[in-house]
Amino acid sequence: MKKLRLIPVFTKQKHFLQFILFMKLFITFLLLNTFSLYAIDTYSQSTRVSMHFNKVKISEILNDIETKTDYLFFYNHKDIKSDTKVSINVENKPISAILDEIFQNTDVKYSMLNNHIVLFADNSADKNMKSQSSEQTSIRVTGTVRDTNGEPLVGANISIKDTTIGTITDIDGNYSINAPNEQSVLLFSMIGFISQEIKAGDRKKLSSVTLQEDLQLLDEVVVVGYTTIKAKRVTGAISDIRNKELMQSTATKTTSALMGKIAGVATRQASGGPGAGANIEIRNLGTPLFIIDGIQKDQGQFDNLDPTDIESVTVLKDASASIYGIQASNGVIVVTTKGGAYKTSNALNISYRHGWQNFTQFPEMMNAAQWVDMRVEQDMNLYGQTSWTREEYDKWQAGTEPGYQSFDWKKFIVKKNAPQSHFNINSSGGSDKTKYYLSFSITNQDGMFDSSDFSRYNIQSNVESEIVKGLKVGMNINGRIEQFKSVATTVDRDDQYIFSEAIFRNRPTERPYANDNPLYPADNGSRGYVNTAVYTGANANPGHLTDKWRIIQGNMKLSYDFSSIKALYGLTATALASYYYADNTYERQQKDFKLYTYDKNTDTYTHTGGSYDKKKKNSFNSVEELMFRVQLNYIREFNKHAINAFVVGEATERKNPTFSVDSKPTSNSLPLVRSSEFTNLGNGYSETSRAGFLGMVNYVFDDKYIIEVSGRYDGSYKFAKGNRWGFFPSVLMAYRIGNEKFWKDAAWGKTINDLKFRASYGKMGDDNIEAFLFFDGYNAYNGSYVMEDNKVTIGFAPRKMPSTTLSWIKTSLFNVGVDFGLFNSKITGSFDYFVRKRDGLPASKNDIVLPSEVGFDMPMYNLNGDKNIGWDASLKYNGSYKDLSYQIGGNVSFSRRKTTKVYNPIYSTSLNYYRDNTANRWEGGFWGYESAGQFTSQEQIDNWKIDNDGKGNRTMRPGDIIYKDLNNDGRITDLDMRKIGYSGGLPLLNYGISINANWKGFDINMLWQGAGKYQYYREWEVQKPAPGDGNSAAMFADRWHREDPFDPNSAWIPGKYPSTGSWASGQNNNYDRASDFWLTNIVYLRLKELELGYTIPQQISLKAGIKRFRVYFSGTNLITFDNIDIVDPEIDIANGVTYPPTKLVSIGFNATF
Predict the structure, then answer these.
(1) Listed residue (295, 293, 285) closest to 317, CA to CA
(2) DSSP states of 665-696
(3) Where in the cell is the protein located (predicted)?
(4) Residue ranges of the alpha helices (H) in 680-761?
(5) Is the dihedral of CA 1127, 1133, 1137, 1142 positive or negative?
(6) Mind listing the pLDDT tens digit for each residue in 989-1038?
């Protein structure tokens, strides 16, 4: 007899385990090779090479030496004229002989330390002799060199001015050098930093030297589409942030860690629930494309990266994104994970953070005295009488007598100081042939309701090795297991929603347990499902929900550098293969429960209510992706020219099988169900594929004139044959006028030392439509019709008329911008203005109306259009004073969308046409009334000339809302409605301010983040007192009400809100008409991140075997300034019943061994 399996045998499981085993073996093999390389003395001083160059730059010869040997050169471009052309023809010569030859008859000297060679200018041979002759009186100088962030600088040059004495810093930034005497001047220099001179006698200053970045010399590279480009040569609207800025966030999701840090990035953290992330868009264009280590992924993959493992995040905001083709029209977020570095020592890093969460803001609720007062008043307003007696009323107002004491349901349901923690251990390093980065992390977050938690385990392994000269192989492996767990409530709603709803629904006159006995959840009538004691109490029998993902990805890259062949110098070929597998198991079991009533006369508990609706749902889905790419890159600089070009061909395939079972089990306790209990059985499968061919050329002349041209030829499975392929080009240009001689010589050139103008225009294609609309066919409807013999049969209906002409949504994006540096680039900034237009948005031709009996819709065509217009800007200041270094930055962005084209809308009336024709109108907002205050007396109502309620103002009371009669017809009607508000989604205006400082081991990092120009329209629980016959938000205590709630003739007491009963039972429609009375156009500023840290002096931490040890305190969402006082400004649920963002206070440490 065969057993019925409710959860299918997952055939992919075997392959999944085989893949993991293969990855383990591969990593083990590479690591064994990696660590064995450290046993080899790679810094041989007897290295010999052959070189044959005729009139080439010295920099090219130095690059060739680095390519052929283990040596690295360090020098300052200001002192060493590396553009000088020389000729050399040597065979099997030591490096020292080659350097002597190319630098003969110059003032360039060098010193060699292991495999590091420091070049420096010697301006006085006489002083050299003098310093050498006084060697016997020399003094020993030691210290550490750091950047403005307090990080040690590796390979910084330290030389004694006017001598050949020199050295460089080690992996920890430490140095040691002999100076002739205390008057000797030590010169500290490093590429990308401003040189600094300190006398040998100033031991205190020499013990810790801080170098400032020289942004004019900094050749930092930025990861863009399929290549890297020097930051100064970037032509597009591109922003990036590094790991240090990401790590200042305590967020569990990467999207949340980006909030307020990048100009042009719009975010909203609508929920603070376990594992929740932020909504994110670039310039409010829509969901962006995410690229992780060169592979396209969705936001879920991006969100669940561990920020510790991220090297950089680059945001492509304009036509620079077009190189990524399909789905790139909303911008691209490019992530590069850490990969170690060649020729660096091993480092082991351990970090841990533990924090405590609390809600930022959740509506306070009425206590029993307030609630009873409101109910009596409501009854009197509606019916002129109440069932409440004066005696009962007085007892509840006093709140001292047993049985008449208020119960705080919010305190009972919401858990304070819910824990959240993060642990990471990683190791990195590299020999001359191999580099690696290995990481493991654990993230845990408990919910604020005692019912849910989120956990995630991440692994990251990035290894690259040079097999033979020029040939490198790399393997990036990342994986994670994440799980969300919660109780399953007895209604078909979001299980976290129920706990928020319970705070509103449970009356303060009721208690969770009968007779306060935790073994008996109380029967509080029809609201029993919101008595959370049945889910979390001592005698609870809760259901459960488990949502679990397991993910593994491996990227294998093979690259060959042809630079050893002179004719192919600068050419690199790369092949990349990526395999991705993910599976999701979901289980939700909803159980029944019992509620009890206590009889104090008999001291018994009687089962009088509960739920008998048992349900169970199991589902499984998996995703398997394969991606292949071949790429040729050509990067070369010669004379005044620089070229960065590539061509790429790539293809992806994705398979997604799904399976689900819904059932009604007969028992709470059995883990499995029988097939007879099935209520629904589902099975699905989808398979997709895409291909693209692309290329780009970035050309720079004289580091002033830059042009970049790219094109992409994409194919999509979603369109009919003949419409599947599209070509999408882009052009980007930049002019570095700050590099012109006339600019540098001018007076303003010393103030505005760097200035670059940019412009870009690109076309992109998007296939964000339903797949296979070009097919006709039928949809099946299970159990839709009862046919002959009383049998339920499956009904079929045509799915749609085929859309055979539907093709790409075509996007054009125009951007102009400027980058600038002031006062030797102590102040840097940028400004961009952009317009994005889209044509061909899918729609049906609704001027042709089909009868409903036909059963299908008209086909889709490329008909509609819209455009986004906006700007973004950023500004940063770097400064220092003695031992204090600091940085202040800010960014701001604005973007709004307008509908430009709507195909022939059909409107029944001219009023509907006026309201609903969206062509050439800004998106967002809604039609509502403009309020003009509130009635303050019955006399004012009686004399009011405008019919406010459509009933001659007979239903009006003092405190009711007055609306503007905009068309002056004496009545408030639909004709008085106007467009009010903004979008209810992401803010149109986003901004952030960051402040960072370091002083003698102390550091502070602060981020203020804010937004504006988006709306929150209040509904139900935060608009009406006691909806659903439950409790009421405490804010409604501030309302218009009678001095004596039992006396309908007593005086009115003014308040902020209308009186109770105004909205109930159809008394009048004045209370909750759509109006700006209930609308808030939000603006807020909050202290998003605050971190205070201290790095233990190295001379102390080294005694414990720790190279660097830092402890810190951090806070998230600590302070908020806003114009809405009832809910958190970021939530997007109109009734306020949601899990709001949380504030988090944490302590942690970082240790490096």
Answers:
(1) 285
(2) -S-SS-SS--GGGEEEEEEEEEEEEEEEEEEE
(3) Cell outer membrane
(4) 741-745
(5) negative
(6) 999 999 999 998 899 999 999 999 988 888 888 888 877 788 999 999 99
Q: Where are the alpha helices (DSSP H) in 477-555?
A: 495-505, 533-536
Residues forming beta bridges with residue 934, ordered by sequence position: 961
CA–CA separation, 292 and 580 (whole Å)? 12
Cβ-based neighbours of 83, under 8 Å, separated by 6 or more: 57, 58, 59
Q: What pairing do the DSSP bridges indicate for beta strands 116-121 and 72-74? A: parallel
pLDDT digits (tens, 9 = 90+) for 700-759: 999 899 999 999 998 888 888 888 888 999 999 999 999 898 998 898 888 999 999 999
Query: CA–CA separation, 406 vs 371, rounded Å?
Result: 10
What is the DSSP code string of 626-660?
A: EEEEEEEEEEEEETTEEEEEEEEEEEEEEEEEEEE
Write the DSSP symbol of residue 615.
E
Residue with tokens 């050169």: 73
Is residue 86 assigned to a domain?
A: yes
Residues contacting 164, CB < 8 A, separation 6+: 109, 111, 120, 122, 128
Strand partners, 955: none
Write out the two tokens for 396. 């509840």
Residue written as token pair 């807020």: 1084
Cα distance between residue 1144 and residue 420, in whole Å: 8
Long-range pairs, 994-997, Cβ under 8 A, ≥24: 994/245, 994/260, 994/261, 994/887, 994/888, 994/889, 994/890, 995/886, 995/887, 995/888, 996/149, 996/886, 996/887, 996/888, 997/884, 997/885, 997/886, 997/887
Instruction: Decide: helix, strand or coil at residue 933.
Output: strand
Query: Strand 792-798 and strand 778-786: pairing?
Result: antiparallel
Can you give the length of the chain in residues?
A: 1153
In angstroms, rounded to a whole number, what is the distance separating the alpha carbons of residues 992 and 374? 43
CA distance 315 to 281: 11
State the burial class of residue 600 (Cβ atoms within 10 Å of its Cβ: 0-12, 13-18, 19+).
exposed
Task: Write the CB contacts of 997 (distance below 8 Å, at least 6 apart in sequence).
Answer: 884, 885, 886, 887, 1003, 1004
How far apart, in whole angstroms, are the C-alpha atoms of residue 205 and residue 55? 44
**Total domains present in the chain:** 1
Of 331, 421, 256, 333, the closest CA to residue 1086 belongs to 256
Beta-carbon contacts of residue 465 (< 8 Å; ≥ 6 apart): 30, 33, 34, 433, 434, 435, 472, 473, 474
Query: What token pair was written down for 1083?
Result: 């603006």
CB 167 within 8 A of CB 118: yes
Q: How far apart are CA 449 and CA 1139, in angstroms?
A: 9
Taken in order 850, 856, 862, 866, is the CA torsion positive or negative? positive
Q: Is residue 164 part of a domain?
A: yes
- Single out the residue of 265, 249, 277 nearest to residue 1141, CA to CA: 277
The pLDDT value given to residue 1067: 55
Structural domain of 187: 48-210
Residue whose structure tokens are 């970049």: 708
Retrieve residue 1014's tokens.
Answer: 């988006």
Average pLDDT of the chain, as a whole number: 84
- Residue 118 falls within a domain, yes or no? yes
Residue from 363, 537, 364 nearest 450 by CA: 537
Inter-residue contact 999 to 882 (CB < 8 Å):
no
CATH number at residue 131: 3.55.50.30
Structural domain includes residue 894: no
Any alpha helices (H) in 213-270, and if so which ranges? 243-246, 254-257
User: Are the CB atoms for 1052 and 382 separated by under 8 Å?
Assistant: no
Mean pLDDT of 594-623: 89
Instruction: State the residue for tokens 């009678």.
Output: 1042
